[in-house]
């Protein structure tokens, strides 16, 4: 009857289900023939066939030599159990997957067990061939099923009568209570069960097919995860018809017509009741006898319904043409007798048959029974013509079918909804409307054209990926508005008795799915919101019922129910499988929340499928914050909160731990502000009350702890504030610990300079510079702990309990300590956490890994700057499309940028401490000029050796000197003095040691000696020790190195010793007295010492210290004088000092600081050139004199002390300079008597009227030639100036007293002689002066000719070039010292001539 050979193009579509259909669905059989399963397929794993024993009952399975054989017997026994449990199923099979029978001694498989080999061995036997074998058996059994329906005299419609009080309305198809051994599959029928192949049959099939009252439900399969029976359909009231025939009137006053179909057919009757029913069925009605009577109508109704059922079987078997014939006949009969339900059923099945034929590519003609009276007229023809004009390429049969499709579906729904004696229950009616709406939606998505694409959507459900937006599609038939109105006819009534919770949920889910496909997201959200309300009520009822059945109070909590039901995720309360919650509930509730604009954790671009490590990246966090900010401005806040509360209630009712955690955190996230508040600026308070916040956080913590105890450690909530960390900073290291960076280039030179004795303070010392705090603050040392400050915000009104906090770093290895804390409500709190780098390299702190109580441990970036999104005042779009666009686009307002801390980790460095010092309490008392030595002991307290030790010194006098050096008004002489005090009079210095001793082994000590000098103003000093571990030669350092510093602060008290109170220099007109030479111990006599070679230095020395002092002054190497000074006394010391000659007394004053050294320095003070010359002259004569003079002191009583006298307090006046200087041109005057061979010095005895010669010797001590003009000036001695020059009658001379001499070369001398005669007795003074006739300049031609004519060495040539490059030096000199002028020199000692009369003896 159902042989596939009659229609080879047919197909069978299997709907594989893993659950037992609920009784409310089984009650619709045979009106909906697909409600009851027709085949049971059990599956087994062939991999375990030879390894694991499926059952321990050996006796029940019989003997088998191998494990596989015993397991196959076990599977066969289980198959027999399935046949007993589900007798009404047409065929039962066991499929063993991945089982390849061995080639030899193959185990024969019993009937009903089929093996499917692995994919690589699937050659002859495949999954397709196995399903074909199952289909052939199924078609054979359907033949018997069809015959049984044809033999039935009457077939009831679903939902005819209400339930009888006291009887159960549920039915079971798993076993036949009337005949428990009865089976439908004839090939496995037992001997006690016989079945006739005739059309009438020997047994009433209605007794076999109708549902019986339930006993304990057997599992659908042997799997332990199979859910138990679902709740039954509630009792239905009303919507029933009174009995109209004798069959509807029960015998003995019992009204069977008042029962529902499942109750009437599934009622467990005893023998008497069965006889009454048989009698009623065989009884002939007396009224309406003959054609057109009631009996004829009853028979036609039964025949027509049987024809429709047979047509439905043909449709399921793939014989669509035969089904179309049967259904047309049945529809015609049902229409003729006004059987509206079955008429609509026949039209629905015809519609499905036409769809299948169109999908298979067969041409057909739309039956006339499908056409409404209006479509048979010209209006139907006009619609067909319009469709042909719109798409001429569409086949005619599809076009005709497309034209009548909307009206046909509406007619079917109208027939189902017609109020009559029989009325379809709400569930199948709504389900049919949803199926029809799905068909119309597929037609609408394909532009209103019925073709291959739309048929694929209708048959397979393959919807296009592009979802419709809100733009209208008015030109497409059927329109979205029409489909929407048609779909909402399926919306269930609010009366709870008409539909079970499960049926109501199925209807609402179907409506929501189609609304989503059509782009009605907000309508879909409304339906989903209703669905959640239905599910919550059903879940609470099921939870209460399940708790009561096992003796647990309904409020016992989630754990008790799950522990009893054996489910790990809270799926037991609703009879869901383990995977249902993960695969369905999350996406379902998430879609609802997304539609309403709930601020969830998942980012729209990354999605919820992203791993936790990827979702915590900075770019993903920023994208998530921007998306959440856009979502906050979408929708109504109160509606969002209500939606999330409903989701929480649903998750608690399931119970679904993951849902409770997720939506509780989403509620806190949505209620929060989502901003990073600044100080007293943004309002970050949440929108919900404090009590609700406490309830949510408590719920999260409890649910999380329950999950941990049940072994569900992966379940946790997502923290609701992305701005948890508002800053991370590094605490400053201890003063002796921070590593200070230095460049590689400074190391060799600094090491050489700092280890020498004479340290020039003006050489750049990088170790004394101000430490760059920013660089030091970013450097860590390996294996040394550092302290960080973490700023955490809590904008909610509840305490935030944090289980663990640790730093998250990138780069070098880093160990962070883990701390826990509690953050108070609505505050920002600072925490301290320690971390230790383990290796050298770059280190970057990008955030912290934090686990809040009940939440997932995740990484939080650092957002230190305040941030708040800007809301657009002008709304430019509405709907979900605008929300998705706003989530992708960057938000308005300031950009969000996470912060990070870049650190550098260096190798392990030593830690050196000052262990001891020889100074008590690091303090010392010292006298001015005294030097003392003390020692300092250093201890290396680490396991790293110290191979670099550099010492630097600072004292209280350096600050004042540096300030004076910075004074722009200071003269060059003053600056030179300040620099000399810095360079030559250092208060602290290191005793010279060997470089090999600059090493401290781990755990050992080293002692170093230092020297301190007493200086005025010295009150404190600091010894700075820079140390490091290089671990390599200095030449191998690549970029930079780091040192640490320790400092020893000293307290110094400097007392006065010997003060220089007054200084004066006196010229000597005569020879130095011999007693002075005897006192200074030189032993010189007046014969060897000329008076013009020395001057007298007078110094008043005062002893300030309360002890006797012995002062020793030295001038050069030969002159030494000692003086004993009592305490408080002042002694004057007179000491001869050699006169000083300076080649260039007007040279510029040099600078000791290399940074100030210039080739030519212009004075910064505005003074005259004469004053500038005087200052320079005083400077150079003072420096020259101080080079020759030194003084020391020592105490004669009390503690032995000694030191030096500070003589730099001497200042030279112009008079003192004249006394000590030697002129550039020397003038020596003498008188020679021709009669005497020896010249007389100083005093010459000359006789009256005798001729003598006055000799003037001129010596040029400079390096340049001089044009001299000599003037000889005789005068009377010991007379006033006016009288002294009146000597013309008393002294006569030969020639002129003023003569111009030729050019006097450098370093040479010349003489001038004139004759003179004294005319009277007396004493005369003869002095002379030399004046430059003209300035000497080096001729350019002569220098050039000399260079060309005479060979010059390379050095001389370089000197000539250098002088030429400085051609404008003289110009600069003239600007400071004034233009060069002709100089004049006077004789320092006049020649005294004593004239007397010659003795008479001589005259004679």
UniProtKB/TrEMBL annotation:
InterPro entries cross-referenced by the UniProt entry: Ig_TRAPPC9_Trs120_1st, Ig_TRAPPC9_Trs120_3rd, Ig_TRAPPC9_Trs120_4th, TPR_TRAPPC9_Trs120, Trs120_TRAPPC9, Trs120_TRAPPC9_N
Keyword presence, Cell membrane: no
Primary location: Golgi
Biased composition (Low complexity): 210-237
Bias (Polar residues) ranges: 166-209
Start and end residues of each Trs120/TRAPPC9 fourth Ig-like domain: 1226-1396
Cellular component, GO, one term: trans-Golgi network
Protein name as annotated: Hypercellular protein HypA
Start and end residues of each stretch annotated as Disordered: 154-266, 1335-1370
Pfam families assigned to the protein according to its UniProt record, in alphabetical order: Ig_TRAPPC9-Trs120_1st, Ig_TRAPPC9-Trs120_2nd, Ig_TRAPPC9-Trs120_3rd, Ig_TRAPPC9-Trs120_4th, TPR_TRAPPC9-Trs120, TRAPPC9-Trs120
Start and end residues of each Trs120/TRAPPC9 third Ig-like domain: 1058-1221
Keywords from the named record: Golgi apparatus
Every Trs120/TRAPPC9 N-terminal domain range: 1-370
Residue ranges of every copy of the Trs120/TRAPPC9 first Ig-like domain listed in the record: 725-886
Basic and acidic residues composition bias: residue spans: 1359-1368
UniProt subcellular location: Golgi apparatus
Domain of life, per lineage: Eukaryota
